[in-house]
Every structure is written in structure tokens, then in C-alpha cells.
Amino acid sequence: MKYKKIPLVKNIVDPKAIRRNKDFHMMVGIVVIMLMMIFYIWMQIKVDDTLRENLKSETDLGQLSIENQELQAEVIRLSEFGRIARIAREELGMVMLQNENIENIQK
Q1: 15 exposed, middle or buried (CB, 10 Å; 0-12, 13-18, 19+)?
Q2: Max Cα–Cα distance, the chain, nearest Å
Q3: C-alpha dihedral, 22 to 28 to 34 to 39, nearest 10°
Q4: Buried (b) or exposed (e) across 38-66, using 16+ Cβ within 10 A?
Q5: How far is CA 13 from CA 9, 18, 23, 76, 99, in A?
Q6: Euclidean distance between CA atoms 60 and 34, whole angstroms
Q7: What is the pLDDT of residues 23-44, one digit of tens each?
Q8: Can you give the chain as a three-state secondary structure string?
Q9: Can you tell me the distance from the alpha carbon of 57 to that of 51, in angstroms, rounded to the nearest whole number?
């Protein structure tokens, strides 16, 4: 029986191809790291902006709360019966009726 010789193929690796492959992977790694750094900086800026807005909102809330209390005090002052009766008498010429002058009409 005759055997056929199989040619031996040597695994030849081109050193220039390996170098290009390493350079490509290094470049991809550098680009990924740069993108991550840009994203990190952007997130820090967003966090700072959010904290600044939060502080401004808390300050505004405090000022509005004080203004609200002042307005509520003014409402109470302006709603006093004596003040309303005096304005009705002096400025509008109204007279307060006594209970005996009031008649209830049934429908």
C-alpha cells in the first residue's frame, strides 16, 4: 500500500500583522478610556448643576414661606370685624341693624 505524502504547512505569522493588531487594540482602548473620562466629567458637571439648582430652590422656598406667613398675617388683620364695620360705617354709610330689626322670611 502506498501512502500519499501530505505537504506540511508551516504556521507562518507575519510580525507586521501582529504589530498592527496590537496597535489597533491599544488605540481602541485609548478611545474607550477617553470616552469614559468625558462621560465622567459630564456627569460631574450635571451633578454640580443639580446641586446648585437644589440650593437655589431651597432658598426660594424659604423666602416664599416667609412671604406666605406675612400675607396670612395681613389677611387676618384685614379680616377683623372692627375694621370691616368701621369701613362700612364711615366710607360706605352703612348702619348695623340690631337683632330686633331683622325679620326672617319663610319661603
Answers
A1: exposed
A2: 143
A3: -150
A4: eeeeeeeeeeeeeeeeeeeeeeeeeeeee
A5: 12, 8, 16, 93, 116
A6: 39
A7: 889 999 999 999 999 999 999 9
A8: CCCCCCCCCCCCCCHHHHHHHHHHHHHHHHHHHHHHHHHHHHHHHHHHHHHHHHHHHHHHHHHHHHHHHHHHHHHHHHCCHHHHHHHHHHCCCCCCCCHHHCCCCCC
A9: 10
Phi, psi for 4 (deg, rounded to 5): -90, 135
Grid coordinates representing 64? Answer: 416664599
Does residue 98 have a pLDDT over 80? no
